[in-house]
Design a protein that fits this description.
The chain has a 7-stranded parallel beta sheet. The longest helix has 30 residues. The chain is α/β, with parallel strands linked by helices. Helix 1 runs parallel beside helix 2, helix 1 packs parallel to helix 6 and helix 4 packs across helix 6. It starts with 9 loop residues before the first strand and ends with a helix. It has 2 domains: 170 residues, Alpha/beta knot (3-Layer(aba) Sandwich), CATH 3.40.1280.10; 74 residues, Helicase, Ruva Protein, domain 3, CATH 1.10.8. Helices cover 50% and strands 11% of the residues.
Length: 261
């Protein structure tokens, strides 16, 4: 697994998952976002063949290295912080975070803290005996009448939230590298913006092509030529693009005039 993962100290803990297909989807989501530490608290057999249906090859790497334990204390023994994802309201624990606020906290101040993020069974979610291990709870905002997410969806939203700045930064760095390299002519950047007189020439060519082709004729609404003109204005063409389009319409006009003669 990539050692440059955004938050390698975050572990995903699945408590008594019911559906092996969900386990596979969780493993795949973790692999997508470069997380590797999956812990599964269960006493039942989880079928690797069913997991593989949804984990695919990439997620199978995460599942194959997952830790299977029979109790929560065993799963959480090396963790400094335990966060539960739950839509439940409890009298004994204050749900102090939504997904966004928790994500901001963990990205900015808790990068070096070994954190277990717990998700409960699909049918009940985290129960009271599970919640007692949590330092805090996180709620994913949702429509009030349908506030419960599928297990794999919840894990995916969680991991994306805590890692999104990492991936945005990576995308920026990749773009900067690409722009600093010599690119093929068709993808080269930095051509000057097309000048106004070039648009005047293009306007004339487009108008002539519309007339010669019969697109403009008696009865055509008067605003049409102006609308077509504004379409090309909004493209904000550079000089190279303008030369290509001007050449294209010049060829159209010449061809139509030859047919007319």
């Amino acid at each position: 697994m990539n050692s440059t993962a955004p938050l390698p100290l975050v572990s995903i803990v699945l408590v008594e998952p019911i559906d092996d297909l969900n386990v596979g989807m969780v493993a795949r989501a973790m692999r997508n976002l470069e997380f590797s530490d999956l812990r599964i608290v269960t006493k039942r057999y989880i079928d690797p063949k069913r997991v593989a249906i949804t984990s695919r090859e990439e997620g199978q790497i995460v599942f194959d290295s997952a830790r299977f334990v029979s109790s929560l204390p065993e799963a959480l023994a090396d963790c400094e912080d335990v966060v539960g994802f739950s839509a439940r309201n409890t009298k004994n624990m204050f749900i102090g975070n939504t997904l966004g606020s928790w994500g901001a906290e963990i990205r900015s101040t808790r990068k070096t803290i070994k954190t277990a993020v717990m998700f409960g069974p699909e049918d009940t979610g985290l129960r009271n005996e599970h919640l007692s291990f949590c330092r805090s709870l996180v709620r994913i905002p949702a429509y009030s009448e349908y506030s419960s997410f599928n297990l794999a969806q919840a894990v995916l939203l969680c991991l994306y939230e805590v890692s999104r700045e990492f991936f945005l930064q990576r995308e920026d760095e990749t773009l900067q590298i690409a722009q600093s390299q010599t690119l093929p002519p068709l993808k080269q950047v930095g051509y000057p913006r097309a000048k106004l007189h070039a648009y005047d020439t293009l306007d004339s060519l487009i108008y002539n092509s519309m007339v010669s082709s019969g697109f403009l004729r008696t009865g055509t609404p008067a605003p049409i030529p102006g609308l077509v003109k504004m379409i090309f204005r909004r493209l904000e063409l550079d000089e190279r693009e303008m030369a290509i389009i001007t050449g294209f319409f010049s060829k159209i006009v010449r061809t139509l005039k030859r047919k007319e003669s």
